[in-house]
Amino acid sequence: MPQGLWIHSKPMNWLHSIEYPGVTGLIEILILAVVFYFLVKFFRGTRGAAILTGLAILFAFLMVITKFTNLLILNWLLQKLMVYLALALIVIFQPEIRRALARLGRQSHFLAGKARRALADPIADAVLLMASRKIGALIAIEREVETLGIQDTGTRLNSEVSAELLTSIFYPGTPLHDGGVIISEARIAAAGCVFPLTQNDDLSNDLGTRHRAAIGMTEETDTVVLVVSEETGIISIAYNGRLKRGFDGPHLRRVLTSFLGRESSGLQQMARRRKKDDDSGQLSFIFGEGFNE
Length: 293
Description:
By secondary structure, this protein is α+β, with helices and mostly antiparallel strands. Helices cover 55% and strands 13% of the residues. It has two domains: 20-104, no CATH class; 113-289, YojJ-like (1.
């Protein structure tokens, strides 16, 4: 065979040796791509993102090195370790997995609109009063995911929601002022509760224990948490592992009224429609389009 013909036929033979996926293969690739996309989207911004990235890079690097250096035994061991690696990932990402499963099990309805709207005014009045007096506060409003385990860390009240009661709970020196309040089914379910602290290391150093507890609570559940800083009196709202600061009276009442009076799906649509009209972007933030500040 002439040399020139051999040179041109070699790459062509190499191309013909490639097996192209059929319809089934393309469907499998599409499914894997979608799963990978949602995994990256879900873990992005969480404390598990750095761990997942590091493990993926390390494992891929070791597999490539052992494969191309003919370290067959080490390559075989790495392949066998993938089973145990899957178990390790379940343990490492247990909070994220639990949060994802809780979201999948949510229902679209949680309480009647009128009953929940009635809570907006007393909660807003209490928060604004405590902010003006720089009284620290931590209030979680339960949605679909129950918080019974966290309620057990505090004192059960089952009391009517009122501005006076909320303010008296957080007044300095009272037995329950250091913990958090949980509002469930239009009543103050418990006070003095210990909220889980976030493990996110990327948060600002200006955030105190209350703010970290608020973020941690929204990472573990789907609650909306109101925070009042006892140092500055600044009002913050945490939701879905994110924190937004600097709410004033009108914005706070609007967010609470919208949140308490509508279904979550309706609020998401409303937030998207009003994104351009809401200069501060706070309604959009509450329902997943904001960022940590």
